[in-house]
Input
Amino acid sequence: MSYNPYNKYVKKYQESNVNTADPKKIMIMLFDACIQFLGKARQAIEEKKYADKTANINSAKQILREFMRTIDLENGNDTSKHLYLFYNRQINKLTQISIHRDLAALDTVMADLTGIRDAFIEAIKIVNQDLSKSEQEEERMRYEEELNSEQNSQHDYGV
Output
């Protein structure tokens, strides 16, 4: 393996991206990573590389546990509780998949997580559109206020 003198700069850039990224973007990145880990686990099962299977499934479970940790169950609504239970079920399924090397069950978990990821992306788009509309409305109102204040402050100089 050859040494690349720029690796340390690339790593700092990547860390900076994560540290300054929008939390919604980070969540989607974590979903992507989780699904990728499960894809690698699937390949490892097919290739009978069971240590790799275990490592990748454990990485995916770690991401799901982090999702669970960030859910506020005390102040959250029913959706947060259902999401918590969903993540917990996926972790339990992944434990069974790891033991039994069940590719069909693994495909189901991957599809379920992809569906949740896609739903979050759609929700983010809707929220961003609503924010954009709200910001546009605020700007329109500021413009009207400025226009009104200019009209009210104009003096009639008899011209």
In short: The chain has a mean pLDDT of 86. The radius of gyration is 25 Å.
